[in-house]
Amino acid sequence: MSHAVAIVDIGSNSIKVLVAARDDTGQLTVLKSRTIDARISAGISHAEPVLSEDGMARGLAAIQELLADSASLSPVRAQLVATSAVRDARNGREFAERVRRATGFEIRILSGPEEANAIGRGLTCDPALANLNNFYVFDLGGGSLECLSFANRNIQEAISLQLGCVRLTEKFVTDSSAPFAPEARKRIMAHSRLTVAESGFRFDLPFPAAVATGGTASTVRALHGAQLGQPIEKTPTLITVQNLRALLDQLAPLTLEQRKLIPGMPAARADIFPTALATMIAVAESGGLTAFHHSFYNLRYGLAAELLAEL
């Protein structure tokens, strides 16, 4: 087993740590993975987003907790990265400086293309996707949607769209504690389809598959696992668009408090989950996709692979 590295991913909705190493065969091996829902991105839909004092405090506390949690594994290198919420916020650099003073670590604020490419590298580490040659990847976060296209397992296109589920919930949902209104669903889907179309992202691969990463796909599998009485790792990795539509139909009439009571539903994600489902359905419709393969190997895995290659 090689030396370990740690990646702390400061996302719009959650902050995650991955501690990983290479085994004797060169395979990326997870030593620790943990997520804290900090939601630092409140207000991200504003024309000039600003991280709130409460959001920055939650973010810093989560980062300190995850760094302490990973220290027991003695990683030889640790890297903190931030994505859409910090990248877009007027005071994102101020937050990064606050984290540096408190922890001693600089935050690498990823551009949209850097984020998308790191996700792509992470996915190539997933043994379950080893047989996929031509495929699209969609990583839906709180602030942005990363869209990638792979031909013969090489990245052909990587773009970042402002379609994150926190961003669109703030923009289109009047009251996230109420049932998900048909009008909100219609507007979110129309906006998502238009954004994808205007981005110029090409759905032109021969015999493609589609891969979904991020909290939305994980939550879909967690809900399925709770129904079956199985851990998420044991649930099928294929998520059909038909299942996404049925799940959204089931959740839309429920209030936020009712959604939180559904077995397997993360309480911190229940308010944005209907928006996330509507967005993923719209993306699938844009590309004529019928299903997504789910993978846990996203941004953190790509950055861990990058750090390990430098050791």
List key phrases describing it.
311 residues; alpha/beta; Nucleotidyltransferase, domain 5; six-stranded mixed β-sheet; five-stranded mixed β-sheet; 11 helices; globular
Report on this model:
The chain is α/β, with parallel strands linked by helices and 311 residues long. It has two domains: 5-112, ATPase, nucleotide binding domain (Nucleotidyltransferase, domain 5), CATH 3.30.420.40; 127-294, Exopolyphosphatase. Domain 2 (Nucleotidyltransferase, domain 5), CATH 3.30.420.150. The chain has helices at residues 53-71, 84-88, 92-103, 112-123, 165-172, 182-199, 215-228, 241-251, 256-260, 273-287, 299-310; strands at residues 5-10, 14-22, 28-37, 77-82, 107-109, 135-140, 145-151, 154-161, 209-213, 238-240, 291-294. Strands 8-7-6-9-11-10 form a six-stranded mixed β-sheet, sandwiched between helices. A five-stranded mixed β-sheet has the order 3-2-1-4-5, with helices on both faces. The radius of gyration is 18 Å and the shape is globular. 46% of the residues are buried. The mean pLDDT is 94.
Question: What is the name of the CATH topology of the largest domain?
Answer: Nucleotidyltransferase, domain 5
Q: Give, in spatial order, the strands making up the sheet with the most strands.
A: 8-7-6-9-11-10
Total number of helical segments?
Answer: 11
* Secondary-structure element pattern, one letter each: EEEHEHHEHEEEHHEHEHHHEH
Strand content: 15-25%
For the termini, the CA-CA separation is: 13 Å
Instruction: Using the CA coordinates, give the radius of gyration.
Output: 18 Å
Dominant shape: globular
Largest sheet: 6 strands, mixed
- Assign the structural class, choosing from mainly alpha, mainly beta, alpha/beta, alpha+beta, or little secondary structure: alpha/beta
What is the CATH superfamily of the largest domain? Exopolyphosphatase. Domain 2
Count of separate structural domains: 2
Oligomer: single chain
The tally of strands reads 11
Question: Considering DSSP H and I runs of 4 or more, what fraction of the residues is helical?
Answer: 40-55%
Please, what is the average pLDDT? 94
| CATH class term of the largest domain | Alpha Beta
